[in-house]
Amino acid sequence: MRDVSLKVSYLKGLVDGLDIEDAKTKRAITEIINVMSDIAEAVDDLEVMMEDTQEYMESIDEDLGELESEVYGDDEDYDDYEDDEDYEFDDEGFIEVDCPNCHEVVYIDKDFIEDNKAECPNCNAVIDIEQ
Ligand SMILES: [Zn+2]
Predict the structure, then answer these.
(1) What value does the mean pLDDT take over residues 16-38?
(2) Is 84 part of a structural domain of the chain?
(3) CA 90 / ligand 1 centre spacing (Å)
């Protein structure tokens, strides 16, 4: 909002050049310009604060993004998780099933399948599994 400060300065010069003879009028206009100048300064301060806040928000957003990829993982990080001993997701041990009851695609542990039937982890309905 540097514009406002510049405009106030311009206005001040303009009024100075007017050579207002009436003292009361001159004083009133001078006071108006002083107030405007204070407001312009306050707006400048606010803008600096806004910029600081925005920078702070951006750094929080960045941290959050890093945290999200740590927690949820993304394609880039996937290899790291595979190397991690704590992270074991064995595709082979699971079957992808389209549940006929809740129509969700669910993954069922083969260990929980008995007589080609298993419980849907989403709606708990017993569904037929074709292996
Ligand atoms: Zn289901």
Answers:
(1) 91
(2) no
(3) 22
